[in-house]
Fold:
Amino acid sequence: MTSGNGKPAYWKPEEETLARTALEALQLDRLKKTVGRVFDAVPFYRKKFEDAKVKPDDVRGLADLARLPFTTGADLRSIYPTGMLAVPLDEAMRLHTSSGTTGKPKALFFSRRDVDNAAELCARSMVATGVTRQDIFQNMMTYGLFTGAFVMHYGAEKIGALVIPAGPGNTERQLMLMQDFRTTTIHITPSFALYFADFLEKKGLDPRKELNLKRAFVGAEPYTEATRRKIEEGLGLRVFNSYGLSEMNGPGVAFECQEQAGMHLWEDHYVMEIINPETGQALPDGESGELVLTTLLREAMPIIRYRTRDITSIVAAPCACGRTHRRIQRITGRADDMLIVRGVNIYPQQIERVLMSVPKVGRNYLITLDGLDEMTVKVELSEFGFDGQLEHVVELQNQIAAQLRAEILIKPKIDLVPPGTLPISEGKAKRVIDNRKL
Ligand code: DLL
Structure:
């Protein structure tokens, strides 16, 4: 994990390797300021604090954060469009919205400083994976209201890498850009990365020989280690897990370094907590629960104790890269993704983990729930998965069903379909269709 001159590559070493005591003191100072600001400037928070009978002065240590009320996604929708602004509207410089929702989205405002801070964190994250100004960065995320593409775009520009704002879709053009400009680094969702790997395989193009790809930043939706390996094999590069959410600036909240062992969550900008999603109680490091985040430097729209609904755990052990910011494990699902099928709690990620470990299985799948808890898993065969013998398909279906039963305790119907027949998504993939009328 070194830069060209043999030293570890950091964007701002003094920020990234700050001693824990100093980092925690900085967090507390910033937390106090944030809490004071929202109390004074955002009536929504003043009321919430008053209802919970807490005052900004009650925050004397980081542990006092637990006394403050949570903010939920429903809260953000309830004050749409401008109810959470902590600055006059003319100081807001950019608007993004959350994705994947029906009805009114969450409106997220950025001041000039917020835009710059978001780009700083992305620059920091990208440098941690080895990016330099020599890199060619093809941004295959959606540009628009979604934060994904824009925020990383500005981060890469800060580093001085060449940015190709390709956006998603149009695989032929993506490939042309990669070939003509010798793209080294891509930013992509896991579902589109798998699709792109399929596309290269169908073309008979070996990315290791014919492309110059070194790394992919993959995030915006949950995926498993098995999927990471499939993408790495299919595209001939290293995959770095990238986590973020629009409520917290978008990407660049937590990112893997070259060690690829959990994502450093940038604690000078966010305080993290892991709680039991049912009780709201704090959980110790290493235990899996819901990630709760508080912004420390956001100007236009600070958010206190945001319930992300994402399930993960904190890795407290120091990282070999030298960064002192603690890591979180890969997100294993969302608290509200959990399916209850015949009384059993199931996360779609568990199903993905099994599917992606079966060699003859392709890269796309869809879980459907019908009637009274009937689960069907449609899954594509890989290009080489079908040898023309129907009995082999039946065998494979039975094998997958048995493996799934071992993991999720129920036996779904398995429907193997030819490669390329399931719908693909350029943005976030929809993996579950719930038609149950329960
Ligand atoms: O997806 C921001 C982002 C863009 C992150 C590009 C990384 C790369 P939202 O649309 O607000 O923002 O969705 C946020 O996506 O709460 C998680 O449930 C999920 N998510 C994001 N990154 C990951 C990841 C962007 N690496 C929601 N692993 C979050 C698992 C992820 N889930």
Observations:
- Residues 214 and 237 are 5 Å apart (CA to CA).
- DSSP finds twelve helices and 21 strands in the chain.
- The longest helix spans residues 20-41.
